[in-house]
Amino acid sequence: MAYQNYIDVQYGNPAVLPVPEDQPLWPLSNHGVGKVAVEGFLRVYGRQHGERMTILRPSNLYGPEQPLREGFGVIRTMLEYARRGTAMEFWGDGEAVRDFLFIDDWVDACRRLMEPDAPVGIYNVGVGEGCSLNRLRTVVERVTGRELRVQWQPARSVDVRGVVLDATRLRSATGWTPQVSLEDGIRRMWNWIEAVPQNG
Predict the structure, then answer these.
(1) Is residue 70 exposed (0-12), middle (13-18) or buried (19+ Cβ within 10 Å)?
(2) Looking at residues 133-158, what average pLDDT do you find?
(3) DSSP state of 90
(4) Which domains does the chain have, with CATH numbers?
């Protein structure tokens, strides 16, 4: 199985990090374009029908029970390769940066924005701290106690170099703040993988 160097998001390669919600949307992949299109449809629907819309832009989510899917979920994929002891393909130099958010923190953000008095709007939902692929590999190896073997491949034009989300707007509106550190979240996910034997 090959991993496609993280999924794309709407912002592409933003000029500002962490990136706030008012930055231009310049996706580099079909996946990112699809996200931008969905936002456009929601805005049009809201105007036509008088509906108040809240749009969430999550960072890279991970956590227990995440399915293993080729090209998606770098933490889930890394842990699976560490478990199997097989080599995983990476594109680029490993310095691409992303913002990883544990699933419980995502659910908490959604819950807060579903409250009757929650303000509507567009919100980034992320930790606000970047982590490179190389650093992530180190954390995975420390948590699992296993080497993550890698086969390096050339970088591709659709791979975003860095996206870290500024969630200041969400914190100001709801008081939300992420509670689960990256290492703790990866440990929880690894414990789940070890406890529930899987074939992917």
Answers:
(1) exposed
(2) 92
(3) E
(4) 30-194 (3.40.50.720)
